Amino acid sequence: MLLQRRLLCTQVPKRSIHPTHHQNSNLNNKKWAIKQVTKSNFAETLEEIKTHIFNSDFIAVSLQKTGAFSSPWQKVLPFDTAEVAYLKAKYAAERFQVLQFAVCPFSVKSSKIIAHPYNFHLFPRDELKMGMPSYSFFCQSSYLTAMAQEGFDFNACIYDGISYLSRAQELAAKDRTGNPLPRSYMKPSQSPTVYSVADSMFVDRIKSRIKIWKRTCQDSEKKTEDDLISTLRKIVSGGEVFGSRPSLSIDICSERQVQLILETLQEFTDLVPLLVPAKKELQLMEEEHNMQVRGFREVVDLISTSQKPVVAHNAINEFAFIHSKFIAPLPSTVDEFRSSLCSVFSHIVDVNHLMREIGPLNKVNNLPAAILYLKRRFTRPLHMEIPQHIDGDEVRVHGRDVLRISELFAKLCLILRIVPESPEADYSTSSSTLECYANVFNPCFISSSDLLDDDVNISTEKTRRISVANLVFLWGFRGMMSARKLKSLLKGSHEVFSGEIDVRLADRNCAIVVFWAPGFAERFLKVMNSGGTNCEPIKDMISEGLRAACYRTYKRVCELSIWEPSLADALEKALEEASDLPEANSEEELPAICWDNDELTNLDDL
Amino acid sequence: MNSSSKFYGTKIPVVRMLVVMKNLFTIRAFHKSLISLSSSTRHFCCSSSSSASTFAIKNVTKSNFESALNDLRLYVKDADFVAVDLEMTGVTSAPWRESFELDRFDIQYLKVKDSAEKFAAVQFGVCPFRWEPHRQSFVAHPHNFYIFPRQEIKGDDTSYEFLCQTTSINFLAKYQFDFNLCIREGVSYLSRSQEKEALGRLNARYKDRLLDSSSCWREGVDTKLVRVADILFSERLKNKIAEWHDGLLGDRNGASQTWKTSNDSKQQLKTIFFKMRPALDLTGFTSHQLRLIQLVVKNHFEDLVYACVAGESSSQQLIVYADSASDRDLLMKELKDCLCKEAEMKIKAAIGFRHVIDLLSSEKKLIVGHNSFLDIAHIYRKFIGPLPSTAKECVISIQKFFPYIVDTKVLLNASTVCQKILKKSSTSLSKAFALLCPQIASGVKTSGLADKRLVKVEVQVDNKRSLNWNSGAKHEAGYDAFMTGCVFAQACSHLGVDFTLNPSSVDLSHHEKLQEYINLLYLSWINGDIIDLKTGERKTDSICSKGFKAHHSKILFSNTVLLWGFPAKLKASEIRECFCKVFGSSSITFIYHLDKTAVFIQFSKEELVSDFLVLKETLERSNDPISVLHPLSKVLQGGRTRAASYEVYKQICSSTISKVFFADQAEAVGIEWNAKLSKPVLEVERQVDFEASENQLDTDARNETEIVSGIDPPLYMHSPTDELDSLCPAEAQMSK
Q: SUPFAM superfamilies annotated for this entry (chain B) (predicted)?
């Protein structure tokens, strides 16, 4: 023991001066060789990533946002049903912005992961001057500070971030580009234009041509004349018809001339200039235009068309953002969301759900810790190989979570035997197995143990399924209280608490009580509603401000977007609103959640 | 190579121009937008000078804040006035929250309040000016503070959030704002109310603990010993501590010290003295181990106290010996006070940038801003407390902290002398600076006679001084504050304040020539509405509307209906048509777009408002062919068209929600519309200076609003106005 320690002691300092260490750190850098993409290298990267996306088996994604949840209860909590979790994710996705979008197409071959990580820097710049993609967005200063500590360059992101439009926004934009005159032309130059000789000649020529055309137009309106003559007249004057109005085409070949004509036209009060691109350039321009309009969404579209499974961590949050920023505004229910999302991405796999398959891991909600855990338990080696070469030696850590997700996914697949281990078998045979794990958005995943290997120890004893009808929210207790204190207080107050109950704090001022015996929650609520008749301790507590609400009220809070900082206030408001409405759909079937004794945020530790 | 491909290569599109005949309105619209565009580009034309001496403005971040603050204290104390300016992350949280001519006084305030509540201030310019009689010039000390709302102390559970308006962020980026510096190094702050709250929380926490001293340090320490390793560790530590404990007692009894530790534990357990008591300093344990040790101490040693004390760099974990119960209580109290004081220190340290505001407030200096109501509202919200719900309460409260505020925009528009110099052109800051202070703005030396009237301003940054300093960047708060101060000094001189006569400095706050301008601010520039900070009332006998262009509109709020949710492509002209068919051709005074989802409709008679609302309701209820063929059905189509009186607009504006489109906002605010329809309207009309008769304004207003619908509106569109340009909101808003 002692010997070992000493060995370690002497080795550590030696290593640091040893040349191999240098190589090591190089390797480490290599490990995070993530290509950082901004507007300047986006076009070239797009071609590159296209091939990788189509040649890889999976695509890992991970987003860096400007914020997540505004107060503790607003994050997705373990007692949230899918609906509630979605509403929370929706709220966050609509408020905050994505600044980094990491994409990593990867394949797993035998014990090797071949990964191509990219990190795209995004900024919702209004390239089309139409108030899109985003009029404004929220930032949490703690998120920005954390990003700054990682060395994130906000200037580069804002100056040079890639913009985008969602599919819905692109449609709206097409709808609105009715006026083909680019706005930039409408800005007059700061000083009155100085005419060169050539300019004034050009202007004079155009002016006289317009005058002649105008005169002929007005003349021809007055008198009816022979078809032939009118046709000839048209050829001579160059007049055409645009819609139902007479028009005149002027061929021009430079921006300068556009400017000149626009200025000339100001003299004519009844004319409107329109810019019509020549046909040859139309296609090229359209491609360029598309690129400019869609921006980063091209990558999302590539992932979508590739039909490859997309791997993420906390998928519901990530895909709420992806949907709202790159597809369309978020629908109001989780089912609509799911079907809308499935039409874009056929397979979405959440590593969180895979982790839940391996019982003890369900506590590990943080990527490095999960990887470390798996490394210790399952010693099958896995090598990460990043073929791409990156010049320069700046830190390339941004977006490294996407590599962690890839690694974790590959490991979990091996453990859960989702992906065949033989290199020759391809992804298609395993897809059916993966299917079981795809597109699950419940925050609480019910383990399908038949898929699991026998030698993996799963302990699911701690999680128990319980209908949300047995959950009651409590608030209004005096001061700051720990869950334990509250529990003991409740235990002595009424017989409904004599059975098995669990008490957890949802945030500082609001607790959630689980009645394991069915029907007791309802009984308790009745006692509360009656004002604690026949029960002095409850009566006392009510007089001190104790309030209770069922799970439906909590759901209403999210549905009505009552995002108060404190859950107690939000529930109170929801109760007020509910009292206006007649008691409706009380018979609706209530879903079940998984109650995990260990998983709730223990606010006592705060 | 043909010309077209060549031009394509250089990104110049080859185009043909089609000149289309169209009706007169469209062309006018086109012209109108051109005019407003040109007014928005006003701040681009400012010359930079080569002759000006160049040293950088004083930038202040976390690292040099303390020293800069100390210097600033002296400068402010000596100053005759202090110019301030702020840069924010945005101005309007939704397009319809921009300032409209149709905004009543109370609504203008609600819009400013919303802006100050949602957006963050990221740069704060402070520039004290002092008159130096022997130099016959002002000395200015421009400071550019980077500030960032970092959460330095643990508050309640809510996070620090702020909104960013994309166009404003782009605008800041265009002027090379350093976001990295701001986020990494920006000085954080705590408002007065935040500080009070934090101290209150602190007191509550320590009061609680007094009642229950056993759970003093950490609640929930009853970690159960389940793992064998934990039991072994606890046992070993128990023995170690017992050894040390016995050794202490033995030592006191005069026996030789017997406590010997093995090498490794000596590093972790070191005997020190804490508050005159022997103590064990615990180092190198994990937090789990510390918890176990805590448990051991609590369970097995009556006269030992486990304490966690904040050291210089990190917190120190100690086991302290207290020889009696009373000594133990004393120690606990000492520790508690220590912790409390420390937490208080942390809160004091978190005040940060607010020290500058406190300084300005306590020195009661004359504060100079340019179109500064929004700035002042930000200062109030960020450094004092939540904004009151009405303008009156707000400004009266502001006066308590800043008794003398003067606004250069008000000054320039009110003073005929200044107007003459500005040749009635815009009173944007950089324009005014260039015209009023040409010697500073461009370093041009004018002829002797004219030069005499120009106030000299010497700039001092650290130890460097210069009479023709001009190396700030526009739209950098520090430089904007400097420009504001220069403009103010010059305007004072034009108003007849003679600095040169006085042997010492001039008391500007009480100067008779300035009295009619002090404590007046534009609540909304677009309406020319001025608020008197002393009374909280709108200034009606306005000196300042002299320079302001006369409004051609008489806005009768009681005649106005708000309509939203109508079919998306409906234009103002079409809506007017529908209404005229029903209520007569002269029934509509004007129609005004808030955004593409909502319009204001002003009827010529008040009773038409209720007539319309009743008619709308009946039409919506019945589904017979008559109602389908009714002219209004075009407006009501889709069944989502809502209408309400002007008061509802106020309710919607006062909501904290900000949806991009007005129709969505109204839905989100979720007021029971139909119930409110018959409610009487409170305010009758807004008083604007009228020059036109109602007939004239009728046509004028119509042109102005329908023009908008003539051109294809941008996504967020409202009526163009001369001062604010809707197409480039950021620029228009940021340039004052």
A: Ribonuclease H-like
d(CA B548, CA B424): 9
Neighbours of A238 (CB within 10 A): 15
Give the domain CATH number at A46.
3.30.420.10
Tell me the C-alpha distance between B522 and B515, whole Å.
16
Mean pLDDT of A190-214: 74
Let me know whether A262 and A314 are in one domain: no
The DSSP element (H or E) to which A587 belongs, if any, is none
Instruction: Report the 3 state secondary structure along A243-293.
Output: CCEEEEEEECCCHHHHHHHHHHHCCCCCEEEEEEECHHHHHHHHHHHHHHH
Q: Mind listing the pLDDT tens digit for each residue in A350-367?
A: 888 888 777 655 556 678
> pLDDT tens digit string along A241-280?
666 677 777 777 666 777 777 777 777 777 777 766 666 5
Residue A93 belongs to a domain: yes
The alpha carbon torsion through A236, A241, A246, A251 (nearest 10 deg) reads -60
Tell me the pLDDT tens digit for each residue of B3-59.
Answer: 333 333 333 333 344 444 433 333 333 333 333 333 333 333 333 333 445 788 899
Please report the pLDDT score of residue A443 as a whole number: 44
Helix, coil or strand: residue B562: strand
Cα distance between residue A59 and residue B397, in whole Å: 57
Whether residues A187 and B41 touch (CB distance < 8 A) is answered with yes
CA distance A307 to A301: 10
Residue A272 lies in domain: 197-281
Mutate one of A272, A482, A576, A581 to test the B interface: name it (highest B CB count within 10 A).
Answer: A272
Give the pTM: 0.76
Domain co-membership, A417 together with A550: no
Residue A316: inside a domain? yes
CA distance linking residue B531 with residue B511, whole number of Å: 21
* Sequence letter at residue B677: L
Q: Chain B: give the shortest CA distance to residue A245, in Å.
A: 6
Give DSSP secondary structure letters for B671-711. Answer: --HHHHTTSPP--------B-S-HHHHHHHHHHHHHHHHHS
| Count of domains forming chain A | 3
Looking at residue B310, what is its pLDDT?
67
Instruction: Show the tokens assigned to A398.
Output: 């941004």
State the burial class of residue A85 (Cβ atoms within 10 Å of its Cβ: 0-12, 13-18, 19+). buried
Instruction: Test B220 with A482 for CB contact under 8 angstroms.
Output: yes
Contact B220 A155 (CB under 8 A): no
Closest partner residue to A186 (CB to CB) among B37, B44, B158 is: B37
Per-residue confidence (pLDDT) for residue A28, from 0 to 100: 47
ipTM score: 0.76
Same domain membership, residue A153 and residue A86: yes
Distance CA A527, CA A541 (A): 12
Please identify, among A241, A256, A281, the residue that sits at the C-terminal boundary of a domain. Answer: A281
Q: Is residue A528 part of a domain?
A: yes
Q: Are strands A547-550 and A136-140 parallel, antiparallel or unpaired?
A: unpaired
Please, what is the end-to-end C-alpha distance for chain A in angstroms?
A: 37
The closest CB to that of B173, out of A158, A213, A240, belongs to A158
Q: What share of chain B is helix, strand, coil (3-state, %, to 5)?
A: 45, 15, 35
Q: How far apart are the first and last CA of chain B?
A: 49
Look at chain A and count its residues: 606
Token couple for A227: 């078809």
Report the distance separating Cα A388 and Cα A371, nearest Å. Answer: 23
- Residue B206 reports pLDDT greater than 80: no
The reply to whether A148 and A246 lie within a common domain is: no
Q: Rounded distance, CA B317 to CA B167, Å?
A: 51
**Locate tokens 């060549």: which residue?**
B6
Instruction: Report yes or no: B638 and B566 within 8 Å, Cβ to Cβ.
Output: yes
Asked if B21 has any chain A CB less than 8 Å from its own CB, the reply is yes
Closest CA to A445 of A324, A350, A325: A350
